[in-house]
Fold this sequence. Notes:
Radius of gyration: 26 Å
Mean pLDDT: 95
Strand order of the largest sheet: 2-14-17-18-19-20-21-22
Low-confidence stretches: 1-7, 295-304
CATH superfamily of the domain at 59-194: Galactose-binding domain-like
CATH class of the domain at 59-194: Mainly Beta
Shape: globular
Structural class: alpha+beta
Bound molecules: alpha-L-arabinofuranose
Strand content: 25-35%
Distance between the termini: 34 Å
CATH architecture of the domain at 59-194: Sandwich
Largest sheet: 8 strands, parallel
Amino acid sequence: QSQTKKTETGKKISPYLFGLFFEDINYAADGGLYAELIQNRSFEYSPTDRTDWHSLSFWEYTTPRYSYGSLNVETSTPVHPNNPHYAVLNIEHVGEAGVGVKNHGFENIVIKQGDKYSFSMFARQLSSSPIAVTISLQTPKGKVVAESKINVNTKDWNKYTASLTASASNDSTSLVILATTKGKIALDVVSLFPEKTFLNRQNGLRADLAQLLADMKPSFIRFPGGCLTHGDGLGNMYRWKNTVGPIEQRVEQKNIWGYHQTAGLGYYEYFQFCEDIGAKPLPVLPAAVSCQNSGGTWRIGGTGQKALPMDEMQEYIQEVLDLIEWANGPATSTWGAKRAAAGHPQPFNLEFVGIGNEDKITPEFEARFKMIYDAVRAKHPEITIIGTSGPFSDGEDFDKGWTVASNSNVPMIDEHYYKEPKWFLSNLNRYDAYDRKKPGVYLGEYASWGNKLYNAIAEAAYMTGLERNGDIVRMASYAPLLAKKNHTQWNTDMIFFDNSKISLTPNYHVQKMFTTNQGDYYYDNVIAQNVKDTTLAASCVKDSKTGDIILKFVNNSNVAKSMKVNLSTFKNYMSSAAQIVLSGNANAENTLEHPQNIVPVYSTVNVNKVFDYPAPAMSLTVIRIKIL
Ligand code: AHR
């Protein structure tokens, strides 16, 4: 329930209002934020992911001059039962350079001159003598730009590693593994990471993308979805236990968005990243039902079952409880020990858990949600549980979702909506009338359809409304976050990227201007608002940690307009304040080729006790005032 303490001038608001939503959609994880450069590293791709994929997809059998042999996929003695397929190379004649395989990565591997790359693979010799292997990175014309050698000399699976240093920069290399001794070897979990990952973490994140997220200073990160959470059938529901532990033991599976998840970026990595950037982790677990509880048929033709059978519910509930022990339990507890063994003896301080994502509010859902909710609440009253309002922003089903959640006394409810910019502008007051006695809101997914400046400014106006209602709206996250060129299933996203370039949308800049300028107290009498002019919106908050006063002004019209500011509530403020302005042509957008069309401009301005702020046409301005 809301903790609001109304005073003469304002109210306390949530200190966690603006965070991030991360889902492995649009190649956001594998091929995206997860820094692994090899695609299908464990030979686990299959027609279940996509009808034309198989164990050797993205691999090429290579027999440079005069060599011959064969390449097969086997399953009889895997590295781990969770990782059943592996490749077997039979080298019959070594020829000039050996017999081997090439991997083209996620549409080639980009390397930088002088940078080091960490190679590893599991291998075993299947013939009597050890097998010498050359690992290299090669250009499309076969020029070797990095090389290292390994001797596979174990009869059992063993992890072999090598470091490769790039002698030149190249945007389209492949990894080439050539066995240069006659005989037979098995290979699996063939991996290549840049040594420079975000904070140089092992099994880490792509440094440039992760840094952009860190720069946003989000107060929380929601993961792993979105629809990825519940999958499109019970077969690919996201089960967190499958995503922790050594990567060769994780369970790979079909991604609901039509590709494959290695789970290399799993719960351990999500929690570590949250800790690294000071964001609260917000895992969302399935409510034991699959995609909108409909068998997954509504969106991408899934054919899975609807809901976990009741006789599996106790086990499932235990899985949810185990997550809390894994995250917060002492290193001596069963699951805390697993976290410690992975390298994190200290708890991760989990405070929020979401249960369900956009689930249709059916009797199946209701029964399972309640069972999970009651069990978590009974064992972990310290955890804030977030329920779901279902897939809609209003209407009968939405009301039903709210009723179910309110009846259970759920502390927060996750609402989702994607709408035209016009909708956002005509709903700036959506939360003003929300009953403060009812559960709080987590606006877990929202965006206006588009990545033009006009969309971003409409969202900015809406976000000032979220701040004004920050006593009842306790968290909010734009969605989706990341989208890779040529692999985008959802067209409106916050950050677009390819293997080397990044384009920050105007929506990203708006989000960042809010996430880096959050407050925990809202003042309602500092900026005069003409409620009849919906082209203008504004907010004023205080960040108690720094004492700073933060003003935000939004003008979504095509002409400059003034807003009146009165700072007399504040004593001893510095007249020189930091200012950020994002403005431009309503239809302007950034692209990978032209990423700087719309960027915020940083400056300082002088503020007086009373002044008119001239908000440029189509703009968001943030002014941050220091208190002495
Ligand atoms: O953000 C993209 C998708 O939109 C999410 O997976 C889902 O929850 C929503 O329908």
